[in-house]
Write a structure and sequence with these properties.
This protein is an alpha+beta fold. Helix content is 32%, strand content 27%. It has helices at 21-28, 44-64, 77-83, 111-121, 167-187, 242-252, 265-269, 295-298, 321-331, 359-374, 388-397, 408-412, 431-439, and strands at 32-36, 39-42, 67-68, 74-76, 94-97, 103-106, 130-139, 154-164, 193-196, 207-213, 219-224, 257-259, 276-291, 301-303, 309-311, 313-319, 333-334, 337-338, 349-353, 379-382, 402-406, 416-420, 426-429.
Length: 440
């Protein structure tokens, strides 16, 4: 993409309404625009990052055996009355009526609708196990939306729902998602620590929040420092092997990790002193087993191998891609702007032409642009007539991982400058060597 033809509304001043780093940088980098309280338009740069995050999530969900569907955003209130949640959900639910005066709602989540789909089609234990997921916009009318897309009213959610015959098989499904989440966050450049979360009236310990540590986190968390060094489950892990899944879950739940709500002071003090870590944390995912909470009242039953009909056991698994964009920025930035992990950078390479109109720099930049584009690399070519300092500031602000800087003096010496955004390292290389370095 040529910057002269791209829509990138950069703000040079820090927006007054932005309270945290991610909100400031997303507004300054032209990623989003607020349209009303807690509701944002995603501009081209933000949309590219959001799509890349969704692709990573989708790949790991598919790898685990989950199957993608798409459910509507507008739901019938009747489904929620069946489950008993319609009156209990509160003012966060946006309730509406259609032209026929039927009660409808803008879905804040999809347990009821998924249960309705299951009861219509899944009749036998032979149809199980099953995990269905989608990536969809949701709406919750937060009383105080804040921190940009970190806590917005409209947000993108990946929600998956497992359906199993009994508790034992539901635990295997839960472990699949636990492992898939660890792999997903690692691929996004995050160290997400699973912390036991409240399971409400269901009880048990099959509910985990995945927390990343960041100074602007919403709440205080406590954990063993060794979590920061743990390697995620490998790509070759067999999601059909319950023992391998359980071993991975056991490893990642073997040390102390708790949010404020679940914090046990005595247990934390039992951790070796040099290994106790207390910090602020941001929730980036939540997995939850809820058994027959919805299948029983809504009649989602299957016939077991013994011929007896019984309610299916279910779980739900959420990741917020739109929230993740902000969380990643909170965890990875410096005073100059965003530092994207390579996997989700909107563009992998930026080409900065320091003297547009000069025959030599124009030709070199065109060669670089054509070669990288032909190799399938996402490139942003700054062919504008801005001053060099402005071009450097923009490239750092939007977080281009590799920056190839092309100027007349360097070309006269047969080189271009290659900058690595993550650590600021710079090298003067030939065009061929710079291409080789970027292409890996």
């Amino acid at each position: 993409m040529r910057l002269s033809r791209y829509f990138l509304p950069i703000l040079r001043e820090v927006p007054k309404e932005a309270e945290i780093v991610s909100h400031r940088l997303m507004l300054r980098a032209g990623m989003v625009r607020q349209e009303s309280a807690g509701i944002y338009a995603w501009l081209p740069l933000g949309k590219k990052v959001l799509d890349k995050i969704c692709n990573v999530i989708r790949e790991e969900q598919n790898r685990s055996g989950a199957i993608e569907i798409m459910m509507p955003t507008i739901q019938s209130a009747d489904l929620w009355r069946e489950s008993g949640r319609y009156d209990d959900y509160g003012k966060e639910m946006l309730r509406i009526k259609d032209r026929h005066e039927r009660d409808m709602l803008y879905g804040p989540t999809n347990e009821e609708m998924l249960t309705e789909i299951v009861r219509a089609y899944v009749k036998s234990y032979k149809d199980l196990p099953l995990n269905l997921y989608h990536i969809q916009w949701k709406f919750r009318d937060e009383v105080r939306p804040r921190f940009g897309v970190m806590r917005s009213r409209e947000f993108l959610m990946k929600d998956a729902y497992s359906i199993d015959l009994d508790f034992e098989n539901a635990v295997i499904a839960y472990n699949r998602m636990f492992v898939a989440y660890l792999r997903t966050f690692a691929r996004l450049g995050l160290t997400a620590i699973p912390m036991v979360a409240d399971t409400g009236p269901i009880g048990g310990n099959h509910s985990h929040e995945f927390i990343i540590l960041a100074s602007t986190g919403e709440s205080e968390v406590f954990c063993h420092a060794d979590y920061l060094e743990m390697a995620p489950p490998p790509a070759e892990i067999d999601f059909r092997d319950p023992a391998a899944l359980q071993a991975a879950v056991d490893q990642w739940t073997s040390l102390y990790a708790a949010t404020e709500e679940k914090h046990d002071v005595a247990a934390f003090e039992a951790v070796e002193e040099g290994k106790r870590l207390s910090a602020r944390g941001i929730e980036v995912g939540h997995i939850f087993y809820f058994g027959t909470k919805y299948s029983e009242p809504m009649g989602a039953k299957v016939t077991g191998p013994d011929g007896v009909e019984r309610p299916v056991h279910m779980g739900s698994y959420g990741i917020g891609p739109s929230r993740l964009v902000a969380a990643i920025i909170e965890a990875s930035h410096d005073e100059n702007g965003i530092i994207w992990p390579d996997a989700i950078a909107p563009f992998q390479v930026g080409i900065l032409n320091l003297k547009v109109g000069d025959a030599g720099t124009d030709a070199a930049c065109e060669q670089l642009y054509a070669t990288l584009t032909a190799k399938g690399v996402d490139v942003l070519y700054d062919d504008t007539e801005e001053r060099p300092g402005s071009k450097f500031a923009t490239a750092d602000l939007i977080g281009l991982p590799w920056q190839i800087i092309v100027g007349p003096k360097g070309l006269a010496a047969g080189t271009v400058e290659l900058k690595r955004r993550a650590d600021g390292a710079r090298e003067n290389l030939s065009v061929e060597s710079a291409l080789a370095r970027v292409l890996g």
